[in-house]
């Protein structure tokens, strides 16, 4: 991982794009969200802090993925607005939004037999115009995305031959090749083993701290969320119960309230962040 | 046994390395055979040269350049249209069975043709327009009946097969209930045939097909992004619904125009993209090679239809149905195992 970090730092100093990041704001203004007749969240307002790593947590069905879909303009709100840089996100051309906001969806399908480098290259779509040939800056973006995610050595491999962890890195690389200052991640570590989860979370932290990406992730693992989030958003039944730095907001009462889980909070000996120990039924 | 294996491996290697070159040279050989082989025409290479340079006798020239060449051109263009239409739908439905001849869009297009003949007589552009409208209408029917909290590829296919059967029955009824003369014209078409093709008939359609093929190529990048799932494509800045509608229109239009000219020819749209994919050994089917394989398939089927049986010419649709049927059974068995 250290090698990757230095590479990212080198890339950053080479790349002027990231220094001149435009001002960025993403928020929902009292939105109602739902599918067909079912309303999942009502009058929901969230502000995504610029330059921070925000993580949304909550029990199954609390609307956290729905909120992420709304933030990434995949789900239009039935009322209220999602605002990107002060404008209604649905009034902007979707391709312009794709230059600002990248998403790692849960349900991505890798086409049969596609090579890693070709999949990552698809992330360049929003930057390409009709009839425009592949440019050097596209190549650079693809290569630095693959370097940052440590998949350079698999560039010519077929995606379906890779392990789950490697595959997920390929999708992250595709989103990175999109070169967006804002990156949304929908349960990026699901189905990965613990080592790959930590590796990926470290990668996201690097992207946030070293490259200045504003990140928003939906996570299931509370302890990972507490360790990596600058801004933790706890949701329950379509409402935001608390948000802020994990150290400030995570209490036994909050976890009991949000998840209905009796627990103890210790200090994580590695990171000093809250560590949640579920009580469960005593044996 | 071992020698045999090495041998086949080498052949597959050669094919997968030079797929386009091989398809092209095979097509070229067929073109020459179609144009110049047959009774009383071109008995040696000198005769062929005279035909090419225009020094042969006028009767032979008419047979080769008016009758055979227009038919050959039609086979290539219609085959390409069907191949691309199949590639578009298989990509949209994300299933190798999701092709317009399985879901019955070509039968729907033929319903349009029959209705336009019954109502307005046998008028060229009315048939083409009728075919496009009929194709779109059957596509709409399939989409309405298959809708249940969104569309799953497989449900679209099953509903499509049902709609296709219904429309076939309707077509039969139409043919039975119109005047004998109209019925004869229509019945000639109903199996799909290139018999009696002329330049005047194929050229206007070829222009239209070229336009739609260009549209398909313009949408190609977006189509490939859609294959990764709606969310992924939308996140990359593809307007998912608009793109899908545009692709559907282009796919239906290609099948419909082809159907207006030749009647419903089955299985080219189904098989061409899959064969192209295997030949190329590539990720997703490329439109270019689907078109090439489609043209080659229809040309070969028509060659068999014309020369396979002594003294009689079969409609090419019969050949494609018979050969394609075998392929379809194989596909369904493989899908069923998944």
Automatic annotation (TrEMBL), chain A:
GO molecular function: ATP binding; ATP hydrolysis activity
Alphabetically ordered keywords of this record: ATP-binding, Cell membrane, Ion transport, Iron, Iron transport, Membrane, Nucleotide-binding, Transport
Principal localisation: membrane
GO cellular component: plasma membrane
InterPro entries xref list: AAA+_ATPase, ABC_transporter-like_ATP-bd, ABC_transporter-like_CS, P-loop_NTPase, Siderophore_ABC-ATPase
SUPFAM superfamilies named in the record: P-loop containing nucleoside triphosphate hydrolases (SSF52540)
Similarity comment: family membership: Belongs to the ABC transporter superfamily.
Name of this chain's protein: Iron complex transport system ATP-binding protein
Native source species: Marinomonas polaris DSM 16579
Automatic annotation (TrEMBL), chain B:
Coiled coil: none
GO biological process annotation, one example: siderophore-iron import into cell
Membrane topology annotation: Multi-pass membrane protein
Main subcellular location of this protein, as a coarse class: membrane
Bilayer-crossing regions: 21-42, 72-93, 105-125, 131-147, 154-178, 198-219, 245-271, 313-333
UniProt cross-references to InterPro entries, sorted A to Z: ABC_BtuC-like, ABC_transptr_permease_BtuC
GO cellular component, one term: plasma membrane
Keywords: Cell membrane, Membrane, Transmembrane, Transmembrane helix, Transport
GO molecular function: transmembrane transporter activity
Cellular location(s): Cell membrane
Gene3D superfamilies (UniProt xref): ABC transporter involved in vitamin B12 uptake, BtuC (1.10.3470.10)
Family, per entry: Belongs to the binding-protein-dependent transport system permease family. FecCD subfamily.
Name used for this protein in its record: Iron complex transport system permease protein
Source organism per UniProt: Marinomonas polaris DSM 16579
Upper taxonomic lineage: Bacteria, Pseudomonadati, Pseudomonadota, Gammaproteobacteria, Oceanospirillales
